[in-house]
Amino acid sequence: MMRAAKRIRIETGARLHFGLLDTSPPFGGLGVMIDRPATIVELSAADQWTVASAFQKRACPIAKRLCQAIGQTSLPAVAIDVVSAAPPHRGFGSGTQLSLAIAEGLRQFTGQDISDETLAAEIADRGKRSAVGVHGFFNGGMIFETGDEDRQTLNPIRQRLELPDRWRLLTLSPATIAETVSGQHESDHFARLQSKPHRSAVNRIGDELQRHIVDEILPAARAGHFTDFAHAIETYNHTSGTLFAEAQGGPYNGRWVTELIASLRNAGAIGVGQSSWGPGVFAWCEDESAANALAEQFASPSIDIQIARIKHTGRTVTER
């Protein structure tokens, strides 16, 4: 049954991905949730299913899968308003956060008892490779996830940590993007990488990446040692990038990202890397003052820059 006429508001942040552990399932990886760019979706009662044309291709399949799961034949009479969304194809996990926000809104609006895992994997259809963004949506924080080859659902969380509140992340992405790695293009990359006869080298790098996480990143995070943590993240990100060098042309995806990361390092920034396939770039900063100084140094009309806080909590759901 549809709920009484209320407005449901779902708010979530963005996901930075520091790199996968493998080029093949179950992949595994490490990332963190940040508070911006934010995704906000509102749902309200309507005479019929209503959503802006720009979001029909994303929202309609989610609603249809929900209806199929609950035995409903028609789309719910609800209006979906995407108030804000992270820019797509920047490496900020915008697709996962938006899909999950829509799915969560529909779950809340219809009052269905659907588990988080079912909502993510079957209704929103996310988390097929890395589940960092899915776990981040529900839990926030820094997520280290791994899995096994036989697992058919989401990779489980191996470790989730809350980082010091004072730490900041500077995100930088091009104001305009000509080419992106997403959808079928991304699937084609993975298909080619998985067909290469370099399994022993991939396994070796994967073991090295897990050692970076367990022996360096997690201990530094727990202790609040910023410099050690930032250097370890940068090393991890670069090493993970070597797994995809054939597809990217190096550890980073293209000239723009490679040159920006080099410029940030030359400026003294640490904890610098590429999020997911890019072109979004991140730099860790010890506090707000350091983030502001670095942002001013790289201010340019051609670069979108934001200073983000770590998002320690999962999505918020409010009813009005």
From TrEMBL:
One family name in Pfam for this protein: GHMP_kinases_C
Any GO MF annotation of the entry: kinase activity
Keywords: Amino-acid biosynthesis, ATP-binding, Kinase, Nucleotide-binding, Transferase
Domain of life: Bacteria
Presence of keyword Nucleotide-binding: yes
Domain (GHMP kinase N-terminal): residue spans on this chain: 62-135
GHMP kinase C-terminal domain segment(s): 218-299
Gene Ontology process terms (BP): amino acid biosynthetic process
Transmembrane segments: none
UniProt cross-references to InterPro entries, sorted A to Z: GHMP_kinase_C_dom, GHMP_kinase_C_sf, GHMP_kinase_N_dom, RFAP_synthase, Ribosomal_Su5_D2-typ_SF, Ribsml_uS5_D2-typ_fold_subgr
PANTHER family attached to this UniProt entry: HOMOSERINE KINASE, HOMOSERINE/4-DIPHOSPHOCYTIDYL-2-C-METHYL-D-ERYTHRITOL KINASE
Protein name: Homoserine kinase
Origin species: Stieleria neptunia
